[in-house]
Amino acid sequence: MGFFVMIRDVSMGFMLLCISALWVLPIQGAGRESFSRNSSSSSLPSSVNVGALFTYDSFIGRAAKLAFVAAIEDINADQSILRGTKLNIVFQDTNCSGFVGTMGALQLMENKVVAAIGPQSSGIGHIISHVANELHVPFLSFAATDPTLSSLQYPYFLCTTQNDYFQMNAITDFVSYFRWREVVAIFVDDEYGRNGISVLGDALAKKRAKISYKAAFPPGADNSSISDLLASVNLMESRIFVVHVNPDSGLNIFSVAKSLGMMGSGYVWITTDWLLTALDSMEPLDPRALDLLQGVVAFRHYTPESDNKRQFKGRWKNLRFKESLKSDDGFNSYALYAYDSVWLVARALDVFFSQGNTVTFSNDPSLRNTNDSGIKLSKLHIFNEGERFLQVILEMNYTGLTGQIEFNSEKNRINPAYDILNIKSTGPLRVGYWSNHTGFSVVPPETLYSKPSNTSAKNQRLNEIIWPGEVIKPPRGWVFPENGKPLKIGVPNRVSYKNYASKDKNPLGVKGFCIDIFEAAIQLLPYPVPRTYILYGDGKKNPSYDNLISEVAANIFDVAVGDVTIITNRTKFVDFTQPFIESGLVVVAPVKGAKSSPWSFLKPFTIEMWAVTGALFLFVGAVIWILEHRFNEEFRGPPRRQIITVFWFSFSTMFFSHSMHTITFKIIRKHQREETLGSFLLLPRSQGVLFFFLC
């Protein structure tokens, strides 16, 4: 269904509807007869049509409709813009259907709109972007955040909010901030969900993290399907859940998770901006919803505070009463983006006309041969100046309700930023901000834009978060899965130095110093760790440790245990424990227990060595006796005394300091011209011995 609204001054009238064979077409459309069709005319058109394509009955749609109406009233009442040209808006309801949305887009094009605001759905955005490309009509979406819509394939599609590329990078930084390595993605299986989670996976990979499991459910899934999905998710190892779904049905996930006991201690739930869109739209907040969501961390598009923003929010109740909407249709951030989108078109038209451009349409030659069909595609016209008008939009630079409205070369809004909120029993509480300029901070991002960009880890700040189960300490983020597989531990099957790690016939299948340390660390854990040791290598030659590291990085092995050297290149792919062996060549030798003995001092030398040492001492004593007994009275006497003196002198040289002096001398043989160096020991005269060595 569709209807056409024409606003003159501040009043608004509803036109009657005429039902055709297939489409619902307006009887009279504002601007059909009032466009300037003569390109040589310098006069401005009396009115210009703009389309609005969204789902009426949705959190985003109900807020957007009020914002559209308010924006049209403000623009037409402002004499400083468009200078007498009235801006009319044509509404079309997509009804959360790709087919209905496509038909609505075609109906919209029949009204010769210069731009279309929407769609709300990313799936519809992919379809109607082809229509925009054919007819050269810019589409400005305030809610379709699929990152792939910003590709070069869709030059006429422009996202006036931040697309999910930045939001997924913000979530990745949040996961990295708490040093989690794996997450489970729960998402709706459409373009919005799949493409957003794909970007999340790429962003996590850059931080050496990953999505361990992707849990997708179809749009409109019932509670039974969601329950089966969450039951399977609960068997996984990771307890970090990232939920990326639509705001109108997303709360059912937490209702089912609560019934399955998945909202208690140890779990982490992170949601994209859909959750705050749903909660902000509830007036007042539902206590039952807050009870379900206690401890959840949610992201939301950040819009800086300003007087204009506060004034607009103050008008909200009057707008809602005027449109006779339900009392619980609250204000959310997409209302601001919808309001700014209309103003962006109006300001761009003002610049477009001031440059001497006109609005003209022409028939599409490729649609001329469709008149025989019941679908009158020949009524669709090409906006001749559409490419120039798109360029004007991309060059706009001003401040709106959502902050600075300026686009970069990739057609993205500059300065992307998000609020980070923690859901408590009293409602959402902001714990910080994220921006691509400084990462996480506890002060508004616009206060930091004047400073140099700094996203270093030490500069990241967030306030305290209360996790599910009212836990303050950040959860570990993983458990051993009930259906999990044991750890696959790679062990190098070496040929040499087998004392570190080698094959064995024991129950583990391996042994060695490194294995013993790893097993000792496992025993210290307060939970069991199922594990399997797998030998790496053929046992005929030492395996390549670089290849082993590569297989750990490729998840072929979960862990590698062995004498692996920590080098810079390897740390780029895997994490190492603290080193437990010093660098360098070391020998691991078994240590055997030994009994204490009074003869322990003999152990440094072998029996043969001690025998040779004793014989040398006796030989020295005998030589000294031969040299001294003729002159020294102490070496004379009965044979028994002389033998005792020889033994005493021999052993006293080993245990007694003789206070001897060493004299070095040089003998020069004049005839042979040779030099001989030598030294001798001068012993105390009490011993009467002169003993020297020649060298």
Strand content: 15-25%
Largest sheet: 8 strands, mixed
Number of helical regions: 18
Alpha-carbon Rg, integer: 43 Å
How are the strands of the largest sheet arranged? 11-10-12-13-14-19-20-21
Kindly state the percentage of residues in helix.
25-40%
Shape: elongated
Number of strands: 29
Low-confidence runs (pLDDT<50, min 5 residues)?
1-42, 662-695
What's the rounded overall pLDDT mean?
83
Distance from N terminus to C terminus (CA atoms, Å) equals 117 Å
Signal peptide: 1-29
GO molecular function, one term: ligand-gated monoatomic ion channel activity
Membrane topology: Multi-pass membrane protein
Protein name: Receptor ligand binding region
Looking at this protein, list some descriptive labels.
elongated; alpha/beta; 695 residues; eight-stranded mixed beta sheet; seven-stranded mixed beta sheet; glycoprotein; 32% helix
Write up what this structure looks like.
- With 695 residues, the chain is α/β, with parallel strands linked by helices.
- It is 32% helix and 21% strand.
- The chain contains 18 helices and 29 strands.
- The strands form eight sheets. It has an eight-stranded mixed β-sheet, with helices on both faces. A seven-stranded mixed β-sheet has the order 2-1-6-5-7-8-9. It has a three-stranded parallel β-sheet with strand order 25-22-26, with helices on one face.
- Strand 1 (2-8) and strand 2 form a beta hairpin.
- Helix 1 (59-77) packs parallel to helix 12 (333-354) and helix 6 (223-233) packs across helix 7.
- The chain is elongated, with a radius of gyration of 43 Å.
- It starts with a strand and ends with a strand.
